[in-house]
What does this fold into?
Amino acid sequence: MNETLLLTKVAQLYRELDRQISQWHTCRACGRCCDFDTFGHRLYLTPPELLYFAHHAGRPLKPMTEGICPYRVEGRCSVYPYRFVGCRIFQCNGSEAAQSDLTEAALKRLKQCCTRHHIPYRYMDLKTALNSL
Ligand code: SF4
Ligand code: SF4
It folds into this structure.
């Protein structure tokens, strides 16, 4: 695995996503959906996202013991620049169809990333992912 190239590809994907999502203007970054159990929401992610996250947020990762993302601090995301694809795309008041299209396109690229860098592709819930490194 060429980690530098992998991290560059994920950063590029995030930049493009942020540019597309910035046109939606629906998320207030209130952090309520990061309390998954209360909000009734789930977050799934892939190995390239997790590697990018660990590289920037630092290891060891915080374990997830409850239904709340451990990186939500005082109600806000403490790792906002490194947050996952699902964190970027999910908009509680946005178009589900638009979010679905963007997610499918992002997952396709992340799968290609896995293939290219010989990483097994997985689609993990946040708790499994954070507890796996
Ligand atoms: S998607 Fe909704 S609940 Fe989640 S942070 Fe944005 S405004 Fe808050
Ligand atoms: S990484 Fe940030 S945006 Fe994503 S679930 Fe955790 S606190 Fe929320």
